[in-house]
Amino acid sequence: MPLPFPQWVSAFKRADKDPARVKMGLVDTSYRFPEPALIVTPVLPEWRKLYCANWLAARPLWISHVDHHPPSLLPVPQTWRDFLNTIPSALLADNTTTKSAREKLAEKTLFGQALVHLQGNTWATQGDVSWWNQRIAITTLKDPPAHLMHCILWEIYELGFCYELLDLDHAMVPGLWTEAPAERTELLYSIFQGESGLVMWQEDMPTTEQGIWAAPETAYPFLESWRKLLSAWPKAPSRLWSPIVQESFSPVIQSDILSSACMFYVQTFFDLFGRPPIVPHWVLM
């Protein structure tokens, strides 16, 4: 699996995880995207193939669904698990008399009939799925190349972080989203590299670290945008109050700001969601 950046590791260790801190009911604590570890959980090759193939088949339409018309209720981890380990034809059955069938009906309702049909039409023992302009034979997913799995998981981490940041920002500064939604959206998008907003699957798969994790000469505008976004949140640390001076920006300053921002983000996220956030990982193996 991809490795987390050290600033996140430190933040997870230092965060106060007292359940009494959690402010219940302010956000939907479910997951827009599956937990990355879920994709690699299966030990048996057939199950590994099923999980990977189902995610890759569902991925394009689900990302579009989440980006443009997010469901009112997001999937919980068990719903993701049930969805990913199901042969799609089972989701299309009309029988609702058993508990299992009723669960499948709930999945169909949540993920959308069109998504289920797309997945069902894509799934085949000899079929293939599309991912970042590649065609991947489903049969190869029994024992997928390590680099492919690394990249698939990296993308899920990125997607999870992008949309959890969006949800958390809405919860932390709802007034800014009411008063100036276009400006807030533009600021959020400017944290991430590329021209596709949060839908990075429309870009090319990166081969080096990007955005706030890139080398200082590249990272500056993205880190400044993230600093600016976080600085508007209540109780933002003083290290994030002032704009970053580009002329004196260095690896030391970059690391210092990242450490402060990651710590603040992790603690704030836990205080509202009651769980750790999904965070970016190294793209390089």
TrEMBL record:
This is Uncharacterized protein. It comes from Paxillus rubicundulus Ve08.2h10. The lineage of its organism: Eukaryota, Fungi, Dikarya, Basidiomycota, Agaricomycotina.
